[in-house]
Amino acid sequence: MKNKKKKIVVIAVLILLLGFGWWYLFRGGRVAEAGGGQKEDGAEIMNTEQAESALGYVTDGTEEYRDFVIDNVFHSVIEGDIHYNVYIPESYDGSEPYALYFTLPGYEGLYFQGVAANLQSEEFGFEARKYNEKMIIVAPQLSDWGETSANQTIALVEYFLEAYNIDRAKVYGNGFSGGDETMSQVLGKRPDLFTAYLQVSSQWDGAYEPVAAQRLPVYFAIGRNDEYYGSDPSREAYDTLHDLYVQQGLNEAEIDELLVLDIKEHEYFTERGMSNEHGGGGLFAYDEEIMGWLFLGIWGRSDNRT
Q1: Which of 106, 142, 154, 207 has a Cα at 20 to 30 A from 83?
Q2: Is residue 185 within 8 Å of 209, Cβ to Cβ?
Q3: Closest to 215 (Cα-Cα) out of 300, 287, 302
Q4: Among candidate residues 216, 68, 47, 228, the one with its CA nearest the CA of residue 141
Q5: What DSSP string describes 106-124?
């Protein structure tokens, strides 16, 4: 009798395992079917469901501000909750790769300043839409300008690269003030995530060697007499990267394709109605030469404008 019961239990377990196996295969097929195509190199693109299961999950925002969906939260498995605002063009359906742009705000735009405070105080995310209509724009709202926020930025970039069909040759970033202190740390850790970077009115807090090894194009824009940082930290960062490229054997023309140091005189700001050079860094969002360098791939066109 006992042996008979054991046989019944074994058969029941086998039936359950077989049923689960068929369910898993069916679900996997449905997920792959919803995945939305291939990358250009032929590798399969992860869809949102797959990316979320591996990296975390998203709570979508319910309100909009100037076409940005605000206060989305990415619940990262490793880095915790990350608040961000995002603009996704109506034309995006996952069938073709889109560009991706991350913009990190200064102190006035951090999350404790209020939801969407970064969008209300800076125009970089809005002006960027003029350069590429097929570009997803992410404006995170982090808690500080240190390593924790840098790691959260990396986690959020990785999520977007996995969850959306992104052209890896068109992944751009910029930081303003404290936002660049964060982003420079991001670049020091993962320069491979980006195609080009614009530093605005800030200083470099991250490592230099990984950026030089990646040969990531970087543009430094700042007022000569920036009230918060001064222009010396930008020059020092430029010189450090320049020296690393010289050590790699690059000539000046090749270095100019990777590095630009653009120090604006005071007249640049006063002519545009600003007396404060640090806050005036927000004017760079409207500068077609600066923003065009970032989004149109005009690397090397500018020649160290100091």
Answers
A1: 207
A2: no
A3: 300
A4: 68
A5: -GGGSGGG-TTHHHHH--H
